[in-house]
Hints:
Layout: H1 25-43, E1 51-54, H2 62-70, E2 75-78, H3 83-92
Parallel strand pairs: 1-2
Amino acid sequence: xxxxxxxxxxxxxxxxxxxxxxxxxxxxxxxxxxxxxxxxxxxxxxxxxxxxxxxxxxxxxxxxxxxxxxxxxxxxxxxxxxxxxxxxxxxxxxxxxxxxxxxxxxxxxx
Length: 110
């Protein structure tokens, strides 16, 4: 009911958050396949996440952006960013960014 009313939103949707520093594509795809299938089977299609969430990965790859986009994500929140980059973005009021995925797959931006 809360999801259908727009008062609760599921984020990310993977079974567990993958680390981008040393991950194989298939592991990431398997994590999301299992998690997204569980969410849909349990809560319905309306609960499918539209926002990715990476609270503590070591690094961010453009391949991750491509995968999240292909999983249907419209955006992503991540918490680990270099302190110099963060301060520069705060000073310039440019905390939002366009994370461009792999050019080999066409235009997939998160």
